Amino acid sequence: MNQKLYTRSSLAQPLSKVETAAEEANRKLREMKRVAKLKAARVAPTSIKPENNSSQRGNEIDDEILERCTKCPPQRKRRGTFRPLIGNQGEFLCDPCYQQEFPATAFLEETDKSLLKRQGNRIRDKIRNGMTDMLADALGTTDSAHDDMSEASERSFEFPSEIECRFCLEKGVFRRCCSSYYCHPCYYATGTCPGCQKEVPLGIAARPEDPPGKLAVRLSWIISFLIVILTLGSLGLFYWNEVTSPITVFGHSCRGFFPRCDLSVCIDYDGGTGYGASGSGLPAAEPYRECDRVTTSNAVVGSACIVDNEMYAWSDGLIGFDLCVSSPREEQTRPSNVSAANPLLLYAESAGVYVFDDDFELPLRKASAPWREIINGNYSSDCGVNSAPPDRGNHGGYQPVGNKNALVFTGVFNRYAMTEGMNVEHGGTIEFFLKIGPLSNNPNTKCKTAHDGDISLEYCLGDYECIEFALYKVWKYRGHKFQFVSVDIPKEAWSNSTGFKFRQKSFDAARDHWALDDVRIRANLRPGWLHSTEFAERRERSNSDMQRGACCFDTDQCSVFDAKATNFRSTDCERVPEFDSNISVSRMKSSELHILFCALAFLAKCAYQQVYTHYASRVRRKNCSKSSREEIIAREKFPKMSFHAVTQLTWQYSVSFLLLSTLALLLFRLGSALDGFRCIADATLCYFDGTFILVSIMALAFDLRAIRTVLVDVLVIEKPLKFVVDLHPDQAMMQIEGKNIPLAEVSALNRRGPSFAWLLSVCYIVAGLPVALGSLTLRSYKLGMVAILRELFGIPFLAKLFLCLQWILSLDKDDRDCFGRAIRRKGLLQQFVIGASLTSVIGMSTILARRVGNTDATVGLVALIICILFGGFFGVLVGIMHGLPIAPEAYLTCWPREFYCLAYYDRAQCPCLFSCASCAEMNSRSVLMVVSVDEMNSLNNMLCGRLKT
Is 901 left (phi over 0), alpha (psi -120 to 50) or beta? Predict the structure, then answer.
């Protein structure tokens, strides 16, 4: 008997010693007695007539009866082979019964036979048994009890479920892929079946990953380095922008990225009432008034920045700007000299008011140039004019029509010009341009050469004699061009009525001509004005005026609460310069535009999901056939377990209260600002902006949807979270919240600590706050962008950003390999096109919808190129990140603690008729499921294949 023994007991037995002839004879005798006793108990006794010549043979039982198969019915009379390892003392079994009872061991004995021979033997045995049973049934000799037992045995052992494992000889389970028996630890150990090397349905089993390649890994490092550099550069630029942003007089923020004080303005100081008339010596309050050439006597000329683009454009440049006190970014690059090109004129601590200004052009500046006396001075261009006049503001009617005249001194006896007394009690500066007749041999020149006659500058206190405090030599200022002169007023001349005199002491009447141009006297403000109580009061009044103007024009700088506080619909708006209610009503606000983008993103995603989900599901149902193996599934014994998430009501109620109370508080503030409660209480008809109400309802709907997603899908407050893991080959999936996750797509299972859980929880809670309604009521650009990102990338967009940073900054070699494999995904080119297109549409739509004036074509082209490059790079980055587990599917049902993170690949199918691989990859992504269950170790062992059969 050439039988191979593969049982654990036989392998454990020691090697037997060699038998002697006597021992072998005794063993055979004992075996024959044991078989005879066994057959006597099974075979009915028959009378056998002994032959005359041998009485001993008459008492023997036929060997054919003794060696019959113990499992076959008696009518088959099948000879069996003795199987010593079956039962306590061994049994005789025929080959078909042995194959049916113990297929794993029988399979090993048939490995030397061909497949055709094995199938032929089975067919022959089946035909023979069928014919024998049919004949016995016709003769009436069938054992019905044995037939019933045989049928039950055949049904129960069609796919026997507890046979020894071919690998370790423990209890095995039938594996349909190779028709062999393996226990769970051996079957799930390597990720492939030990018999046929087919992939097992368990994805976490250790199977080799495709190498990403050196190029892909290097590209991952380059992308990480580029993202880090861009991020650090962006943060540095934002920080530098905040630190070096201009500071204005009344504390308004300059608008735009890297704002500059490039707006040169001239402000009529206190409406022409006169500098220091009230003794305040403080800056003019907003709203500023433009300088007027005829009526303005005291002017403030300085560099300003725009604080409200819409208000500045709609008021025709009259309001919406503020003077700069400091501008760190420009102080090193722009000159502070008023005579230079594009000067930076800061309204700093030493700021002042021009109490005297004369350019000697027509019409004459009578209000701002109070000359007491001019002797032998004429308005002419005989000595030329100053070709580079100082900055007087680039808006308003303060600039001269032309530059044609200067004050030229000729004649005899006296040559001087003296101003009226002016208030310079806090000091100041005198600025003017001086030219003395150049050397010339031309006798017909109008500006005669000066060989002598220095020019003195004197101050006069009342009617007393004037005192010289500056002298300008002929040799230094003689030439063909005007030279700029700036001199500080001496402290002895500080008073509220000081006059100034320009005089040529000695001269030749026939020559020694000289000229003045652009004479200005600037009086300083009171020292410490920036920190005085009076200025604080003026600042409050100015801020109130600025809010009134913003709310009257209904710009983005006016929130709903500001509108309530300023009562912007009152008749006060008539005092706002250039106010026109039709302008503000006919234009969509940026906050409303943000909600519109949210609505477009929501509708686009809904339409895409409808097409993708329903059409793709129909394609799958059409291509997939129903399985007819329900009975086989029921017979095969594979692990199946149910798990429940750890639920803590205190955590769920706390987060719910935080989100709902924030929404309720915001709604209450909004209702109060719109006078809705007063209208309901008084039962009166109130005016409401229909567009604003409609947009508010849309924003509320988005916020309610976000809160519901957090409470129902993340916190799972409706019912306890339950999911089932089924390892059966025909199922091989994990079912959770109505979603089936194939176990073959599960790639990793890791344990993360409480810090990770806290960060993830904060990301979800922040994303669930009512940012859409908040951006609308506060007119906040930042909250509006957050609302748009939430609609585009879903509630976990902050968590995705957090996980992206982890992968980008990771230095682990295995993580870099995963990053490299993600770079090799298909569809990245399509992602670039989609990202560039969407970013260009959104960016250019925002620019065109929000512009308040003409947009330069070059600026628009540059903006379009930036949108294409940035959007394309962002689209490629999103495509790469789809190959990494950065899309969280979190079930945060308890306070942050240790969680299991299960990574699986959510594989999608292209919904179109062509089944594009790139389209399918674009819609597929790696998902990171975060959950805390009651039996962590059992779940881990089950998903990793560490199971008992």
Answer: beta
Q: Do 451 and 557 reside in the same domain of the chain?
A: no
Query: Which residues lie below 8 Å from residue 220, measured CB to CB, with a gap of 6+?
Result: 816, 819, 820, 822, 823
Residue 489 and residue 424: Cα distance in Å, rounded? Answer: 8
pLDDT tens digits, 124-135: 888 888 888 788
How many residues does the structure list for the chain?
949
Cis peptide before 363 (omega within 30 of 0): yes
Cβ-Cβ contacts under 8 Å for 433 (sequence gap 6 or more): 339, 386, 482, 483, 484, 485, 516, 517, 518, 519
Q: Are residues 278 and 367 in the same domain?
A: no
> Looking at 99, 129, 158, which one is the last position of a domain?
158
- CB crowding 854-888: b at 16 or more within 10 Å, else e: eeeeeeeeebeeebbebbbbbbbbbbbbbbbbbbb
pLDDT in tens, 725-754: 887 777 788 888 778 888 888 888 888 889
Residues 4 and 145 in one domain: yes
Output the CA torsion sign for 765, 771, 777, 778: positive
Cα 312 from chain centre: 33
pLDDT tens-digit map of 650-665: 999 999 999 999 999 9
pTM beyond 0.85, yes or no: no
Under 8 Å CB-to-CB from 115, ≥6 apart: which residues? Answer: none
| Nearest in space to 409 (alpha carbons), one of 387, 386, 444, 434 | 434
CB 387 within 8 A of CB 403: yes
What does the DSSP assignment read for 522-549? EEEPPTTGGG-HHHHHHHHHHHHHHHHH
Specify whether 569 is located in the same domain as 513: no
Residue at which a domain ends, from 581, 609, 644: 581
Q: Are residues 361 and 450 in the same domain?
A: yes
* pLDDT tens digit sequence for 594-608: 888 888 888 888 877
The span from the CA of 857 to the CA of 127, in Å, is 91
State pLDDT tens for residues 921-947. Answer: 777 889 999 998 888 788 877 777 776
- Neighbouring residues of 481: CB distance < 8 A, sequence distance ≥ 6: 384, 387, 435
Cα–Cα dist 762/16, whole Å: 71
| Domains contained in the chain, number | 3
Cα 797 → chain centroid? 5
| Termini Cα distance of the chain | 32
Contact status, residue 918 vs residue 937, Cβ threshold 8 Å: no
Structure tokens at 286: 């907003």
Which pLDDT score, from 0 to 100, does residue 494 have?
93
pLDDT higher than 70, residue 2:
no
> Smallest Cα–Cα separation from 885: which of 899, 906, 865?
906
For 449, the domain range is 355-531
| Residue 828: partners with Cβ closer than 8 Å, 6 or more residues away | 876, 879, 880
466 backbone φψ class: left, alpha, beta (φ>0; ψ -120 to 50): beta
- Residue 567: inside a domain: yes
